[in-house]
Amino acid sequence: MPSQTDVVGIGNAIVDVIAHADEAFLAEQGFAKGAMTLIDTERAEALYAAMGPAVESSGGSAGNTMAGIASLGGRPAFIGKTRDDLLGQVYRHDTTSIGVHFGTAPAKEGPPTGRCLIMVTPDGQRTMGTFLGISAELGPDDIDPELIAAAEITYLEGYLFDPPPAQAAFRKAAEIAHQAGRRVALSLSDPFCVDRHRAAFRELVAGEIDILFANEAEICSLYETDDFDKAAANVRGHVAIAALTRSAAGSILLSEGLSYTVAAAPVARVVDTTGAGDLYAAGFLYGLTRRLPLPTCGRLGSMCAAEIISHVGARPEARLSALAAAAGLG
């Protein structure tokens, strides 16, 4: 365990497989554009065979966020479940080589390491078919109490919320963090995930979460409304900080009765939106651990999101610390 940890992320350890596709392909394969669909082994194999040339890299939402924090110069850690197979070895190497502490031991039995098949349409939108594999079996026993207690912020990935053991792991981590005087953050991750577990998410948000990340569709799903302003009003009082992203319209930050509007950072061309929310969270959380004002945290998030959508893949290609310094945000 590192002597100091800024943020520990808990999420699915997933290897991303990214390929370009048109909307006809999505329809043919039965996917809702822009959403994440859970698939089984057979479906994953059939989809992979049908996809075009692909780029493979370690991913997973919380893993991407920790990678972003490392690129900014922070001290992140990750808790996620892999198998002792080839993809598990790849994931561990990719994660530790960029400066993320990853101490979760690989499982010696069970399903293989998970993978996410990502189809990127010409407008940069990503549609995902996710085979969770062994990552879905993460449970309370995988939570490292010392690591959670030492981390300034524990970050929970909403995508992992489907399996009951993971929900129990989230609650255990939140309890440990709060007993140690630390903060807990949650990303809602996907509106369809919120739809499946709305009551449980609301209970978690109201009782355990200090910092909430959500995009417009996710926060509206949480509060069952099509009115973003109404959804934003509903989240007030439940969390200390809410960072609500609105794509090209930037983000809205809510805290202690105050509201800040942060513009999206400019990008020459949107290539692939995979990981935009993950990297926004990276910049924002890094800023919080550096005690920066909330608007500055939001600008860091926007900068990181702009970098990630300018190329294929959900891990930074540029050194984010250098970009932040150049923008006067470091």
Structural write-up:
- It is a single chain.
- With 330 residues, the chain is an alpha/beta fold.
- The chain has a single domain, classed as UDP-N-acetylmuramoyl-L-alanine:D-glutamate ligase (3-Layer(aba) Sandwich), CATH 3.40.1190.20.
- 40% of the residues lie in helices and 22% in strands.
- It contains 13 helices and 14 strands.
- The protein has a nine-stranded mixed beta sheet with strand order 6-5-1-9-10-11-12-13-14. A five-stranded mixed beta sheet has the order 3-8-7-2-4.
- The longest helix has 16 residues, at 164-179.
- The protein is globular.
Supply the key terms.
alpha/beta; five-stranded mixed β-sheet; nine-stranded mixed β-sheet; 13 helices; 22% strand; UDP-N-acetylmuramoyl-L-alanine:D-glutamate ligase; 330 residues; 40% helix; globular
In brief, what are we looking at here?
With 330 residues, the chain is α/β, with parallel strands linked by helices. It is 40% helix and 22% strand.
Total domain modules? 1
* Strand runs, count: 14
Mean pLDDT: 93
The CATH homologous superfamily name equals Ribokinase
- What is the CATH fold-level name? UDP-N-acetylmuramoyl-L-alanine:D-glutamate ligase
Strand order of the largest sheet: 6-5-1-9-10-11-12-13-14
- Poorly predicted sequence stretches spanning 5 or more consecutive residues: none
Regarding quaternary structure, what we see is single chain
Largest sheet: 9 strands, mixed
End-to-end Cα distance: 26 Å
Rg value: 18 Å
Order of helices and strands: EEHEHEHEHEEEHEHEHHEHHEEEHHH
Shape: globular
Helix content percent band: 25-40%
Structural classification: alpha/beta
